[in-house]
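Worked example 2:
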Amino acid sequence: MSSLVAVLVDGVAYGMLLFLSAVGLSVTLGLMRFINLAHGAFAMVGAYLAVVVVGAGLPFLLALPLVFVVVGIFGIAIERTAIRYLYRRSALEQVLFSIGLAFALGALANLIFGPQQQGILTPAWLTGRVALLGLEITSYRLFLIAMGAATAIALIYLFEHTLFGARIRAAVDNRRAAEGIGIQVERLFALTFGLGAALAGLGGALSVEMLGLDPAFALKYLTMLLMVVAIGGAGSIEGSLLAALGLGTVDALFKYLLPEAGGFVIFGLLVAVLLVKPAGLKGRVA
């Protein structure tokens, strides 16, 4: 029984990691209506940046906000120089551009760092185990759960209870009317895209310890991130959290109980949810 509970804790931690990596994609896809298949590449940039700065001596906890800010600025630069011209283009053009960007950044990572796996130095207090309710739980798992919960609360507050969130919703629902009342829609979209990229970078930096890092990272986990958005509903923070936790725990449970059926169950779960709720658990029907 204690082993099963420990597996569930691992699943929740993995789910929180999926949430941190996928929630930015949900924001850009659901609120800005941009199909950003390069989202995993922003996570990869954050992961490599974390490996470099921590390897250079910066403490892990200081590296995380640095990665968040730098990848956010990188995302804004990409949005201002290229992506803003694609908002009104077809879905196919958005997909082709963003997947091409992901391949290009993966090739650049391979050129700079090589194809080998990268590791990251985490503080000693994150590598130990904590006794909790009779279980020995890895400190890093608990740290991931705390980071995911704090991020979810902050994002829900930002998008549901602030002027910034209200302006984003207004700009998406009726851009012309929003511009008519003085909302700087282009600047708002750039900031929102930067926020999505920053969250991806943070998720990538936190993933290195648990998932590893190589130049294929940008595309390796893209399917899982898209599944989180599809099941949760594009643009919904709560939906992304529920979907990520569900996928994480189901994945961990079946890897433990019935490893050969794990992949089938995950994709079966996606199909079942979309048959019942085509817009996802918390998505809005267009």
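The radius of gyration is 19 Å. The beta strands are 129-132, 135-138.
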